Amino acid sequence: MTRHMNPKKFLAEYVYEVEKDFDVDGIPATWAASSISNKPAHRFWDDADEKVELHFFDGEDTEEVKIYATSHDGKLVAGSNSSSVGILDAETKEQCMQYKGLVFPCVKLLFSPAVNESGGYTLVIETSDRNERKSVVFFLELDRNGRMVHQPDTIDVNALLQRSLGPVVSQMNDSFELSSTSPLVESVRKGYSKALEDLRAGLESRHLTRVSGRPAGFGSSPFSMDGRLFLYVTQNESTQSGPRPPADLPKVIVYDVADKCQKYSLGGHEDAIMWTAFSPDGQHIATAAWDGTFRIFNVSTGDCKHVIGPTGGQCWSGAWSPDSKHIVLCGMANQESQHETFVAVYSAETAQQVNRFRNDQLKHWVRCVAWSPRGEIAIVHERNNVWIWEPFENRTISSFRVKVEDWIMESYAAVSQVQWVNEGEVLVARAGDGTIEIWNRVKNIKWRLQRPEGAGKERGIGIFRWVKEDQTLRTFSRDGFMRAYQLPQ
């Protein structure tokens, strides 16, 4: 009988193990010394130095927080249960504000990487109506204390509901002897309540800046480093089911957040756009699409500077080098009538290939890469491998592999996110079950924050943030808790 797997079933059955640990010159990483609080290097989630329940939505029953984001300076944390967005002060854990003006469910939160013109913060809220395949991005302007700069128009739904339904309920009782608890009256109450909630949401959001579209995925960097420009994609449905007129093909929109206007519409791709990113110096924009091409655009003019490809297969993701002179690109290539995965570094100036990563196990998607300030690239393979590659010496210096004996669990267990911290000395990697591996590349020591066995999806980690000042990793989980782990280097 064929077995089926889903995230909840996977988390209930999977037991995390490592098959191959990070190493330096063939020497496996060793456990770091105990932390300041005498905590071991290998611990489980609740063995944290600090555990705090986060209350984003006071005074109402809400679903668990599913989506998180932290501001560039770590001062604010935003959370959403799909229907509302709350802002907390990350240090005091006090609520700054709650925003309820979502017409569609929230699917992503993202802070600008820089302060806005008033010295505060800009929060991007991506909302989506999947039934209508419609996405809208809102820009929420916050002050230095995490409160909305412009207070929205709103109504008291409960008060208006009672005043409006009073005459209706009285008339139904007099004419038909229907009480206020009658199912017929209750259905009217629910329908009218929903209509008033929609009206309230529309009022609260009507003066917000918004655009129709969505930021791309797979590690995209939609903001320029100064926070002024923002990238989103439109008309981004796949064209594989049939051709479309050029005007209807996928586009990347460059939006000026400060002036609240579209700056450029970047065309040329003929299939769904998967990844977009500004170069760190803000001079170029790179894109990857299913049409088998990568494109590099000039930010100043909007002109396409280079087209890399077609590769003969779908293109998925990439990452800029810290100095903006090179770019690593990932996709599929058609080599001698066979498709193969490729990861390659190109010159941003000439679009010429510099080096290509080679490994016999590179047979599945690479949708996540991270370029270290030290010049090393972390390559995340869909089938449980992470490789550390020095592209200019074309040398693999380390690797890591999650142990998965049951093939049906492979795609769920694989590492899904990596991030270099401490100027590239430390790599943080999150596995599919939520376990976090931390590896100091220079000292070749490691830490592990492991998911407890059998924990359900509700304990999944939403995001993590490295705090350099006190060498602490903070995690924000879907059970509503922030946990902090001190990891002295």
TrEMBL record:
Keywords noted in UniProt: Repeat, WD repeat
Q: Does the keyword Repeat apply?
A: yes
Signal peptide bounds: none
Q: Does the keyword Isomerase apply?
A: no
Q: Which domain of life is it from?
A: Eukaryota
Task: Give residue ranges of the WD repeats.
Answer: 266-307, 408-440
> What's this protein's name?
WD40 repeat-like protein
Q: What lineage does the source organism belong to?
A: Eukaryota, Fungi, Dikarya, Ascomycota, Pezizomycotina
